[in-house]
């Protein structure tokens, strides 16, 4: 109704001007018969109101749809009973635009899928030579081979990040619900990153009892925890500090906590640390920062229906918690 009145406001304005001109002509003629003038005004007004009522009745659904937002792109702004020339023309225009938009979206979606497929294939192809190089130099003790090993670790981690980032777009096809032992996940990561800890002079302290079993996806949780541990070590490197990885209960929740004593996060960056590609003030000091680690962890937790908490003070370290809210088994036997 409001939209209808807005559209016809100019018409009403010009009608009143026209009515005023007619009255002026009668006035110049001397108003010989005032009742004739009033009768003419009444007839004119009735005809105008009748026209507005007809316009509103024939386009009522049309105006109603224009006033309410569409919830889906497939929803039509017009109903089947709309038959006015304006509504039919607008319907044809919108349908044409929707078909064009849908075709463009399909084209770009197809290109994106091809790009993701290519990236996945490329990552898998690159993982093979990386593994071969690891095997070739794993028994070498010379410093140059140790440096090569470190760089290969960086390459392998970068490849994993690319692979898991691309898989996020199709998470449901790469998800398997299972019982996950947090102790097993953390122990595996500590073993895999032992050279990383030694190189950065950071020492892990693990307090994850074996009884904590959560419902999740072991592969995705393994990757998320690897991101948290990598960040904790990176921002504690070279200061002979330790990071603490622990698990405990909080009500009906199980918490996996990664705590470091590193440089911490500036207060102005705390609200944006989970944004993609945001590196903040610390990212300018550490060239390896991509701004994707915490973003990926948050997205993984969102897909798995877990939660994540972060506390940090500049110069005092950072604490990140993964919160598992599903029903848990306290022991592996029970």
Automatic annotation (TrEMBL):
Its EC number is 2.7.13.3. Its main location: membrane. It comes from Priestia flexa. GO terms for molecular function: ATP binding; phosphoprotein phosphatase activity; phosphorelay sensor kinase activity. It is found in: Cell membrane. It holds the Pfam family HATPase_c. The lineage of its organism: Bacteria, Bacillati, Bacillota, Bacilli, Bacillales. It is a multi-pass membrane protein. It catalyses: ATP + protein L-histidine = ADP + protein N-phospho-L-histidine. SMART domains: HATPase_c (SM00387). GO terms for biological process: cellular response to phosphate starvation. The chain crosses the membrane at residues 12-28, 34-54. Residues 121-328 form the Histidine kinase domain. This is histidine kinase. It comes from the Bacteria. One of its GO terms (cellular component) is plasma membrane. Keywords: ATP-binding, Cell membrane, Kinase, Membrane, Nucleotide-binding, Transferase, Transmembrane, Transmembrane helix, Two-component regulatory system. InterPro entries: BphY/WalK/GraS-like, HATPase_C_sf, HATPase_dom, His_kinase_dom, Sig_transdc_His_kin-like_C. It is an enzyme of class 2 (transferase).
């Amino acid at each position: 109704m409001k939209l209808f009145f807005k559209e016809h406001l100019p018409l009403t304005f010009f009608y009143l001007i026209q009515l005023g001109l007619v009255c002026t002509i009668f006035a110049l003629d001397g108003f010989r018969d005032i009742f004739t003038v009033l009768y003419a005004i009444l007839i004119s007004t009735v005809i105008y109101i009748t026209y507005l009522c007809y316009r509103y009745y024939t386009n009522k659904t049309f105006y109603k749809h224009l006033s309410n937002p569409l919830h889906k792109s497939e929803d039509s702004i017009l109903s089947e009973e709309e038959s006015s020339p304006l509504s039919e023309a607008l319907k044809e225009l919108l349908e044409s635009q929707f078909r064009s938009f849908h075709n463009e979206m399909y084209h770009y979606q197809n290109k994106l899928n091809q790009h993701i497929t290519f990236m996945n294939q490329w990552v898998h192809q690159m993982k093979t030579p990386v593994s071969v190089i690891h095997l070739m130099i794993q028994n070498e003790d010379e410093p140059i081979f140790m440096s090569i090993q470190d760089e290969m670790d960086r390459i392998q981690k970068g490849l994993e990040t690319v692979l898991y980032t691309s898989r996020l777009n199709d998470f449901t096809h790469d998800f398997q619900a299972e019982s996950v032992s947090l102790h097993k996940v953390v122990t595996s990561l500590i073993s895999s990153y032992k050279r990383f800890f030694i190189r950065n002079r950071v020492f892990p302290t693990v307090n994850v009892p074996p009884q904590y079993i959560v419902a999740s996806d072991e592969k995705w949780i393994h990757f998320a925890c690897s991101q948290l541990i990598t960040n904790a070590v990176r921002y504690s490197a070279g200061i002979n500090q330790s990071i603490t990885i622990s698990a405990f209960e909080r009500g009906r929740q199980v918490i996996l906590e990664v705590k470091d004593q590193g440089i911490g996060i500036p207060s102005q960056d705390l609200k944006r640390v989970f944004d993609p590609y945001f590196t903040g003030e610390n990212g300018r000091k550490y060239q390896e920062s991509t701004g994707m680690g915490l973003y990926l962890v948050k997205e993984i937790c969102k897909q798995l229906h877990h939660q994540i908490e972060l506390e940090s003070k500049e110069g005092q370290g950072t604490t990140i918690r993964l919160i598992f809210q599903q029903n848990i088994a306290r022991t592996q036997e029970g």
